[in-house]
């Protein structure tokens, strides 16, 4: 589904990702761990194609196609969808208008999802303006359900969200991943794929992960079983990732 | 009280007086607009080009959902009809003949010698519309008025008086425009608006000119106790120069004024748009919101609030988008408090569309063009409601084009 090959990325002349190699298999959920500042968000933003993330070398392959130099909207059209941590305030852009604008015949049932996420009363509001942390995540999920991507790039879906909302958000992510998108292939256990950043691992209470990576100082230092990784990180912190590097690479 | 002769003398002295703001036009370069215009019984009988011109400024030839219609062509009245028996709608000249008391409302809010444009309008004894909603009368449908310039290189001078009597409510949609082919002309418009105790006036004005048109409206609004005035101003098409600075005088306790301005300066356009509120009574409120876009023209967005009485409360918001390297946006907010215990605030911002916003929408699959269009549409959405569908569609088209050009 997604392959990142030897990716080197600069922001404002500073190298932020250095020779990153990573794969997300079709229908699988891959988790990205790593300390603050490791470059996790930068990797997601680069995969989506946001400006400012300057790819110096390496490739991003999506469904067999090199998308490294495609524009953001072209990537979205091919089936990439992102939930960033801090989306911008969209003054004047009503959530309802946005959901309508991005809806296509491939969209999921956004009315039902809006209802389920308790977002109906936000439809007339300006997107993200005055939204709480949980409201932002729910609005992002609603937009993603209209977009119905094949690969979900989720940057800390649980951050800034209260415990009750985490459950709702986690379950919705699981449902979205299981739903049918244009990339659906019968033999996959799940319809869609995901690359998820998590610090707390809370989202993994609702979404079953298949693979884990640890990113340190802009590069992948470990690849392994995500739940084992989480356990180790929780007990020993990210000092472990250095050890892991020594042990594995 | 000033006599006609005294006013005439003042006006004559001011006939070359340069206005405080905006490009100075030499009015001698223009002919005086004709007073010989064809009368139209039914707006539907107008030729299709002119009907479309009317629709583009929110004036519906079929008069559907309108309580009355008024059409001024050049310097004379072509059509005036009213279906609501309680509302008075006629030409100002006719109204002056009918009502002796109207003298007390004429040239009282706008001075004849404010500048050469007011002076010329006075000296030409400009005609225009007179609308009056009698006490307690709440009009359910808007009155539509349209001022059209039909001849090249001519001036149109207009003098309007609107009166909303005590506890009455009136909605007015007024469209000012030029006939097809009239590229160069000058529009001077005096409007004196009175909203009496508890009255409400919703006034929506749509301007739609051509590349070489000069426009100098001179407007003042007088509000009594508990009166409300809501002004919506929309200008999305090219023009050479508009300079306008309407003043609302909140003269009675609890009066409220709101000005919404949305305007686009195309290459070659110079817009100097402002609104001013004088808080001359306690517990008065006002809100001035301006959203302007330059695609290559120059914009000055002014806003001024002067608090002269206790518990005045006002907010001024000037936001400007710059969608071209050649355009200029200037926001000039002025707040003045002459007593304590008042609350005047302002918020001004000018700049380009944030790339982050465009990419956010692109990441959802929208093309750059559609993303910019959506942001521009949102930027201009200040909650003006009640616009006819046909106009809304034209506005949408214009905004889509602006989005396209911005890339």
From TrEMBL, chain A:
Signal peptide: none annotated. The keyword Cytoplasm does not apply. Keywords: ATP-binding, Nucleotide-binding. One of its GO terms (molecular function) is ATP hydrolysis activity. SMART domains: AAA. Residues 2-242 form the ABC transporter domain. The keyword Nucleotide-binding applies. This is Iron-regulated ABC transporter ATPase subunit SufC.
Automatic annotation (TrEMBL), chain B:
SUPFAM superfamilies: Stabilizer of iron transporter SufD. Residues 151-379 form the SUF system FeS cluster assembly SufBD core domain. Transmembrane segments: none annotated. GO terms for biological process: iron-sulfur cluster assembly. It holds the Pfam family SUFBD_core. Belongs to the iron-sulfur cluster assembly SufBD family. This is SUF system FeS cluster assembly SufBD core domain-containing protein. It comes from Methanococcoides vulcani.
